[in-house]
Amino acid sequence: MIGRLNHVAIAVPDLPAAMELYRTTLGAQVSEPEDQPEHGVITVFIDLPNTRVELLHPLGDKSPIANFLEKNPAGGIHHICYEVTDIIAARDKLMANGMRVLGTGEPKLGAHHHPVLFLHPKDFNGTLVELEEVAA
């Protein structure tokens, strides 16, 4: 059902410093920040040969990343994202197996403008999992 690892998302308290760390220290190609108001975050993507790293920073006081950073002031891994070719079929299979989908259970458009869903961390060894639909 799941395909390749799409990205690992890291919540960061200081987005410009994190961008500079990846750009200068690791020599990575770092995108420009992009506001994602529907998700309450600012995203930056770092392209790697086999996947991406997503830097997340709060956008507004009600951001879920602000809550994460309150508990983890230095930042840290927030979620991992796997690709699926049919997000509705994946959701239905997971739910039939007792897994919990966060929110309404209906996909939203993610940072790449593809449908995404999040799965409850308690069902996946304490890890928040995002599924992103991609073309086959």
| Domain module tally | 1
Question: What is the helix content?
Answer: 10-25%
H/E topology pattern: EHEEEEHEHEEE
Name the poorly predicted regions: none
Q: In the CATH hierarchy, what is the architecture at level 2?
A: Roll
Per CATH, what is the topology?
A: 2,3-Dihydroxybiphenyl 1,2-Dioxygenase, domain 1
Give the rounded overall mean pLDDT.
Answer: 96
Overall number of strands: 9
Which radius of gyration do the C-alpha atoms yield? 15 Å
Structural class, by secondary structure, is alpha+beta
Report the CATH superfamily.
2,3-Dihydroxybiphenyl 1,2-Dioxygenase, domain 1
Strand proportion, as a percent range, falls in: 25-35%
Overall body shape: globular
By DSSP (H or I, 4+ residues per run), the number of helices equals: 3
Sheet with the most strands, sense and barrel status: 9 strands, mixed
In whole angstroms, the N-to-C terminal distance is 12 Å
Q: What is the level 1 CATH name?
A: Alpha Beta
